[in-house]
Amino acid sequence: MTSATTLPKSATGSVALSGVTKVYGRGQHAVLALDQVSLTVAPGEFVCLVGASGCGKSTLLNLVAGLDTISGGTVDVGGVNPALMFQEPALFPWLTVGANVELPLKLAGLPRAERRDRVAELLKVVHLTEFARRQPHELSGGMRQRVALARTLALDTPVLLMDEPFGALDAMTRDILHDELERIWTERKLTVLFVTHNVREAARLADRIVLLSSRPGRIIYETRVDVPRPAGSTPPRCRPSRRR
Ligand SMILES: Nc1ncnc2c1ncn2[C@@H]1O[C@H](COP(=O)(O)OP(=O)(O)OP(=O)(O)O)[C@@H](O)[C@H]1O
């Protein structure tokens, strides 16, 4: 949990931001990146955060992840360590696919036999079982992102923070990964906060879309997406809700 004041812990898997402000720098050079952002993501909910470049989307995600300090307000992730996935897969090029996925388990001190079973299970989840012994450079961009997703899932946390994870992929690969992410999210009952520039991607994945204003980032609009799951190619129906 990252907070200026301590709040009661939220339910496991929920994310609650209350009046969150972030200022970078100080004095004349201070940049107000986020201004009084309040947002709750319920356990098991998939929320997409959209907004123009520089509006503070990554800042918000980094604050929830605990990678940076807030200037005001509170962030409560119910005492769990959220997992964070970026646009770049950031795999270790000298390790095999399996060893990349195994790394967080090794760092967590899991015994070797347990690690081996977990890696096999995770590679199965992302359909990469037969690539366990390959090096990252032998994979396509979409496959590398699937390895990064498996490594993120290895952390076994209920909260997944994703910062444009498919932004560098072509449209067809992205569509496939949308289906895979939706399946994994449903099976594992994850709480997901997903940043994207792409409104179509948000409408494809989200239960709820939240729009940030240009800097300083404030929530100016949100809408529920009513679509039966799995959403697949079903056109979404958006139901707007007013925000302050
Ligand atoms: N470390 C920093 N120091 C100073 N200003 C920063 C820092 N990090 C971000 N900013 C500023 O804060 C604002 C929000 O940045 P942020 O990266 O969160 O936006 P974003 O919505 O994620 O942008 P993009 O969609 O382009 O990735 C921007 O104006 C940015 O220049």
Largest sheet entry: 7 strands, mixed
Mean pLDDT: 89
Shape, per Cα inertia axes: globular
User: Which ligands accompany this protein?
Assistant: adenosine-5'-triphosphate
GO molecular function: ATP binding; ATP hydrolysis activity
Pfam families: ABC_tran
Protein name: ABC transporter ATP-binding protein
Domain ABC transporter: 15-239
Concise account of the structure shown:
By secondary structure, this protein is an alpha/beta fold.
Structure description:
The protein is an alpha/beta fold. Helix content is 30%, strand content 26%. The chain is built from six helices and eleven strands. The protein has helices at residues 57-65, 97-107, 112-125, 141-153, 171-188, 199-205; strands spanning 2-3, 15-24, 31-41, 46-50, 72-76, 83-85, 159-163, 191-195, 208-212, 219-226, 237-241. The strands form two sheets. Strands 6-7-8-4-9-10-11 form a seven-stranded mixed β-sheet, with helices on both faces. The protein has a four-stranded antiparallel β-sheet with strand order 1-5-2-3, covered by helices on one side. A hairpin with a 6-residue loop joins strand 9 and strand 10. Helix 2 crosses helix 3 (112-125) and helix 3 crosses helix 4 (141-153). It is globular. The protein binds adenosine-5'-triphosphate.
Task: Jot down its keywords.
AAA+_ATPase, ATP-binding, transport, 6 helices, binds adenosine-5'-triphosphate, alpha/beta, 7-stranded mixed β-sheet, ATP binding
